[in-house]
Structures are given as C-alpha cells and as structure tokens.
Amino acid sequence: MSPPAASAPAASAGQPPKQLGISPPFSTASPKSWDLESTAQLEQVLQACGCFETAEQKARRESVIADLEAMAQQWSKDLGRSRGIEEQAVQSVATLRTFGSYRLGVNTPDADIDCLLLCPRHCAREDFFNSFCRDYLATRDDVSEVFPVPEAYTPVMKFKMRDVPVDMLFCSLQHAQLPRPLDVQEDRHLRDLDAEGVRSLNGVRVAELILQLVPNQTTFRTALRAIKEWARRRGIYSNVLGCLGGVNWAILVAFVCQKYPNAAPSTLLHRLFRLYFKWSWPMPILITPTREEPAEGCTPHAVWNPKVDLRDRAHLMPIVTPAYPAMNSSYNVGEPQLRLLKEEIARGLELTEKIQEERSHWAELFEPSDFFYRFQHYVQVDVLADNPEDHRRWFGWIESRLRHLTLALERPPQLLAHPYANTIFQRVAAASGPPQLCTSFFIGLSFPCE
C-alpha cells in the first residue's frame, strides 16, 4: 500500500523556507481572520455537496486495498513457483501503490480507487490480464463487473470490490526481486519499460511528487477538493472529453499553492481564478523544472518539449507532469474546450471577488451549469446497450472519440461547439425485450453570426 504522505520540507531555524516550484512565490502573506472564516464557510459548503467520506466508507476502502494487495502478493508467489523461480526470489512479492484522488487525499465517496500493481520481472502484463484476472480476481464473490482493457493507452483493469470501483494498472519492474523499501521516484525503475509501463508507473510518481511539491498539504487538499467539485458541477471535469481531469486540476492547484504558500484555501481559490484568467496560454504550467535526461545509467524516454517536437508545440493548454519523463497531461484540450474553460474561469473569478467583497457566498460558486438553458441547438449522442458489459465497451469507445466530433463541428467557421462533460444515464424502453441501458452525451451549438 501507499506509504503515509510526506509533508513538505520544513525550514531550519533562522533559515528562509525552501522554495518550491520553478520561481519565487508571489506572496508569502499569512491569512487574516476573515480568510479563515471564509475557509470555514467554504468547507461547510463542501460538506453539504457530499465531498467527504464517512469513517465507515473510508474503512471499507482501506480494507479493499489491503485485500487486493494480499491477493496480488499470493498471485505473484504462485506465478513465480510455477515458473521455477527460487523460493527466496518468490518471496519478493508484488506491492500495491495508490495514486489519483485517493492518494492525494481528496476522493469523494463515489470515486474509484486508482492503484498500480508493481511486480518483479517474472510477472508480465499478459499474466496480469489473464491469470490474475481469471483465476484470482474474477473468482471472488465480493468482486463484480470485471472489465479488463489491455488495449487502452494505459492498460487498465476495471472492477468493483465490495461495491467500491477500482481502476488497477500494472507494471513489471526489471528486478528479479523488488527493492525494499521501493522508492518509485528513482529513475532506475524506468529501465527497459515500454511506453505503457512508463505511463503506468508515472501515475504513482506524479502523485507522490505533487504532495512533496506543495508547501502545505492540508490547504492544498481543501483547495483541490473545492476546484474539483466546482469543475464537476460546471460540466468541465473530464480529461477524455478534452476538458481537464483530476491530475490536471491537481497540478494547477499545486502551482497556485507554490505561489501563495501561506494562503488559506478560500484565498487560494480566488488567486487560482485570477491567475489562470490572466494566463497566457500556451505558456506551460510547471511545478518543478523538467529534466531532459534521466539519472546516469537509466533508460532515456521522450520528454515533452515544444522546442523540438512539432506535436508538443501544437498543444493549447500545457499542464506538465512533474515526474521524469515530463508529459503534457492536458494534450486533449482543443479550441472548444479551451474556450469553455476560459469562460468558466472568468465566472469563477467574478464570483470569488464578490465573495471577498461579501456580495456573494460560496454556494453560488458551486451552482450547477445552466448548459441546457444556454443554447437553442444541441447534438445528443446516445450509447445504448442491452447489458452492462456491452454498455461499458461502447461507452468507452464513444467517450474517447467525442472530442474529435466536437472539433469537427467547428469546421464551418460560423458554428461554435460547446462540450459538456457531464452525462445523463437512464433506462429506456426497447422495441422488444427489457429496457436498454442508455448514457447520453451533449454538445451545445451556437451561431455567433445570427
């Protein structure tokens, strides 16, 4: 399991605090009493929005992670013995690391657990999607909806365990025995990994680094919870659809925390909207300097670099991951999505300024989007299937291509497409047989010349 989160390094007595990020802070001012009162009001609104787990829900997640790790360790041992691995090496078993919202400490009650299974080299990705899935995972009574996606950009196993959704990645490190302790930040673990393995491992590396690169993890978590809830309610929370997802928002919030290291969460939200309202995209967001090369003796990998890569240069809203090899986490953002994000950030800035002037309140910031009242014309894409497995497959296929449809709709210059990241699920009557499962995507259309 993931180790406890490490706090940012503290300054020694008489020494200035260590600078986090690539440039000095904009302000080191401490919060005033009004900022703390405003933060308390913000947290009350987040509680009302259902952003926090109960103690029982948290304990259930922890038990799921513990059982998954125990199962994976047994699989790793059994697989090693079946291949004639020496018993001493077999005892160096798999380990499970979490990342994403759970690792960052900002998961909602309905969020999935993102985790990575790290194994010694006798375990291969094919074994994970075959024997582990078939003989260990799918045979458990408390596991349901097992859905392996080995062909995905980052191969993933999706399932539920005791009704907790889990997205499980896999990475086989080139070690006969896993080091103890295993520090995933060491570049040597990238040796001889393919692109899928690097992306899988970097999910954990990025999450760990983000926590190390923020000056105060408590304020970071409160601000990140707030911005994620705001983005969900405003219909702009989806990396797949070309808006921004969890890691994008985490890096954006971490950057603002670095610039205002002592600010209260309520202040950070206002500064975030103000900073990104004025930001000159495509100037990238970086929370640590990027490295062109790994540590000496380690395998080099392609690094995001718009100076030498034409594809990188075409990115509209670069939000760069802190771990080597640095990648643009927001490469999916297109012109329609960037325009939408700018509009919502402008609204957020207006409302947070009113809140600071005591002319508004936090609940107004989190009001749901008026998407279905803003336009006269909409494109609706329905994903219909007779059973959950077919529905999941078609949903994933359509979702991954919808941002291309959004871009194509704007090819006539007189039309603007407005994506909406929230979907609507329902059961619809079929011509014959039981009702079908239906998920609907929506794109608003406007004609500025009218």
Short description:
With 450 residues, this protein is an alpha+beta fold. It has 14 helices and 8 strands. The chain has 3 domains: 55-207, 2-Layer Sandwich (Beta Polymerase, domain 2); 215-352, Orthogonal Bundle (Poly(a)-polymerase, middle domain), CATH 1.10.1410.10; 371-446, Poly(A) polymerase predicted RNA binding domain (Alpha-Beta Plaits, 2-Layer Sandwich), CATH 3.30.70.590.
Task: Give an account of the 3D structure.
The protein is of the alpha+beta class and 450 residues long. The chain folds into 3 domains: 55-207, Beta Polymerase, domain 2 (2-Layer Sandwich); 215-352, Poly(a)-polymerase, middle domain; 371-446, Poly(A) polymerase predicted RNA binding domain (Alpha-Beta Plaits), CATH 3.30.70. It has 14 helices and 8 strands. The protein has helices at residues 33-48, 55-82, 87-90, 100-104, 125-137, 195-212, 217-233, 246-259, 265-278, 310-313, 335-356, 362-365, 371-374, 388-409; strands spanning 95-99, 113-119, 143-149, 156-161, 164-172, 377-385, 416-428, 436-446. Strands 1-2-5-4-3 form a 5-stranded mixed sheet, sandwiched between helices. Helix 7 (217-233) crosses helix 9 and helix 8 (246-259) packs across helix 9 (265-278). The chain is globular, with a radius of gyration of 23 Å. One of its GO terms (cellular component) is nucleus. Its cofactor is Mn(2+); Mg(2+). It is found in: Nucleus.
